[in-house]
Amino acid sequence: MKMTNRTRTIIKLCFVIIIFSIGFCEHPNKYHNKSTSNGKTTYDHFQNNRSYRNKNNSRIKKIDNLKLANKQLELLQSLSPRDSSVIISGVVLNVLDGDTIEILHNDLIYRIRLDGIDCPEKGQSYGSASKQVTSDLCYNKQVDAEILDIDSYGRFLAKVKLPNGIILNEELLRKGYAWHYKKYNNDIRYAVLEDSARYGKNGLWVSQNNIPPWEFRNGPDNFILPEGVKYVASRYSKKYHLPSCKWAKKISQDNVIYFTTKEEAEDKGYKPCKVCIQ
Ligand SMILES: [Zn+2]
Fold it and tell me: Which CATH number does the domain housing residue 109 bear?
């Protein structure tokens, strides 16, 4: 069958119309709105977040959001002048634990780690209490996250401002549900807030035996790990473990043996645990 010139033109025209209408339906910058004030660049403000979220929940889930968000921030940072900070404004969709939240911004979900503080982990005393306090303060609220850095896990470290102007990071210290993360932050204000919460016995400071989250992550809370220790074992078993192994958590302080190297453990007749050591 031969196509006339007229038919060809009509087919081409149809293509153009289809491509144009796709472009209009899914314009990527539909909700994007950049504004600059006081040397700070703010990307996007959702006006109707709650209804937007409900209507678009299914669509949001489909986005491999974190990867996209990371990429987008890299781009934003490369575009921003050095002295201006990047602020991500949006509604808090999810509170993962005391110091980690997810914010919906410009159709993407950003995972934010609160900068300068460290909250008790899940499974640690006050872990769920601290998560609850963070939820009460920010869940479903419009916040401004000032991105300060990206950590080794690719999360954005941020100072998060609540609608009432209070800084979430500071409020958690004030209420006694976070440690000042001194290893990575030297803000004297944070140090003072933690100290006064300790003296006031606020939040977790009611208890005397708190284990800092960074120690908890490094090892089990059933014994304190001496400096330099890499592996542990029970004197009543023949397996050695990483301190973070679930089996290591079952060893009591009275029975634990410490090793600094695998060789040291194996010389003493211990075999590597198949769960935690490859
Ligand atoms: Zn193990």
Answer: 2.40.50.790
Over residues 103-159, the pLDDT tens digits come to: 998 888 889 999 999 999 877 789 999 999 999 999 999 999 998 887 777 778 999
Contact present, 69 and 110 (Cβ < 8 Å): yes
What is the CA(219)–ligand 1 centre distance, in A?
12
Neighbours of 135 (CB within 10 A): 15
Annotated catalytic, 155? Answer: yes
What percent of the chain is modeled with pLDDT above 70? 67
Domain span holding position 245: 219-272
Q: Which residue has the higher pLDDT, 123 or 50?
A: 123
Please identify, among 167, 182, 204, the residue that sits at the C-terminal boundary of a domain: 167
Considering the domain architecture, whether residues 152 and 65 belong to the same structural domain is answered as: yes
Could you give the CA distance from residue 156 to residue 69 in angstroms, rounded to a whole number? 10
* CA 256 to ligand 1 center in whole angstroms: 13
